């Protein structure tokens, strides 16, 4: 059985896990703000390296992150935790992002994003029709992902102009940053 990944940083507020990239930057759980008000993001990808890269990138930019590597472990994680955002690869070893969103039902997080290597119109349309707020294509700049999460949560954004994202009708309209 594929179990959800455990949090890497447990214990004292000053704990710096050995081999964890943020430790090399001098970041501690205290300086990264483990406060409950920070968004909790569930990253789901069967590519463990990509999952870890996103985990580190989101954590160093002020998000709390849980990871899962299968549809089953994603569902288990969302049943155990109330997440603010789901970032899910389209295809997983035991299902798809569409299955995850359908099966989670009322525990659907406020923001749900497909992050996929597939960039055809049909995949984008299916993602949006299934209820995802955006379908982003790998490789997506982390700042774009963070902006889509922030926009969905009604939080301040980085100010970059979003391009090449498929957004659902539920998502707030993009604001122009220039005249």
Largest sheet: 6 strands, mixed
Lateral arrangement of strands in the main beta sheet = 2-1-3-6-7-8
**Radius of gyration, in angstroms, nearest whole number:** 16 Å
Distance between the termini: 54 Å
Unreliable stretches covering 5 or more consecutive residues: 3-27, 159-179
Query: What is the CATH architecture descriptor of one domain?
Result: 3-Layer(aba) Sandwich
What do we call the CATH topology of one domain? Rossmann fold
Helix content: 25-40%
User: What is the overall silhouette?
Assistant: globular
CATH superfamily of one domain: Response regulator
What's the helix count? 6
Order of helices and strands: HEHEHEEEHEHEHE
Written account of the structure:
- The protein is an alpha/beta fold.
- It has a domain at about 30-155: 3-Layer(aba) Sandwich (Rossmann fold).
- Helices cover about 30% and strands about 15% of the residues.
- The protein has helices spanning about 20-25, 50-60, 70-80, 95-105, 120-130, 140-155, and strands at about 40-45, 65-70, 85-90, 90, 95, 110-115, 135, 165.
- The strands form 2 sheets. It has a 6-stranded mixed β-sheet, with helices on both faces. A two-stranded antiparallel ribbon has the order 4-5.
- Helix 3 packs parallel to helix 4.
- It starts with 20 loop residues before the first helix and ends in a 12-residue tail after the last strand.
- About 35% of the residues are buried.
What key attributes describe this structure?
single chain; 179 residues; alpha/beta; Rossmann fold; six-stranded mixed β-sheet; two-stranded antiparallel sheet; 6 helices; 8 strands; 17% strand; disordered N terminus; disordered C terminus
């Amino acid at each position: 059985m594929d179990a959800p990944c455990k949090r890497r940083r447990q214990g004292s507020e000053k704990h710096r896990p050995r081999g964890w990239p943020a430790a090399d930057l001098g970041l501690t759980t205290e300086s990264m703000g483990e406060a409950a008000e920070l968004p909790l993001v569930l990253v789901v990808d069967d590519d463990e390296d990509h999952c870890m890269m996103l985990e580190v990138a989101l954590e160093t930019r002020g998000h709390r992150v849980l990871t899962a590597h299968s549809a089953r472990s994603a569902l288990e994680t969302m049943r155990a935790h109330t997440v603010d955002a789901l970032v899910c690869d389209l295809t997983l070893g035991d299902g798809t992002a569409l299955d995850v969103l359908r099966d989670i039902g009322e525990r659907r997080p406020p923001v749900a994003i497909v992050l996929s290597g597939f960039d055809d119109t049909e995949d984008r349309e299916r993602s949006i029709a299934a209820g995802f707020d955006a379908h982003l294509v790998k490789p997506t700049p982390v700042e774009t992902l963070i902006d889509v999460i922030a926009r969905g949560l009604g939080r301040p954004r980085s100010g970059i102009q979003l391009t090449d994202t498929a957004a659902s009708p539920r998502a707030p309209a993009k604001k122009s940053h220039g005249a």
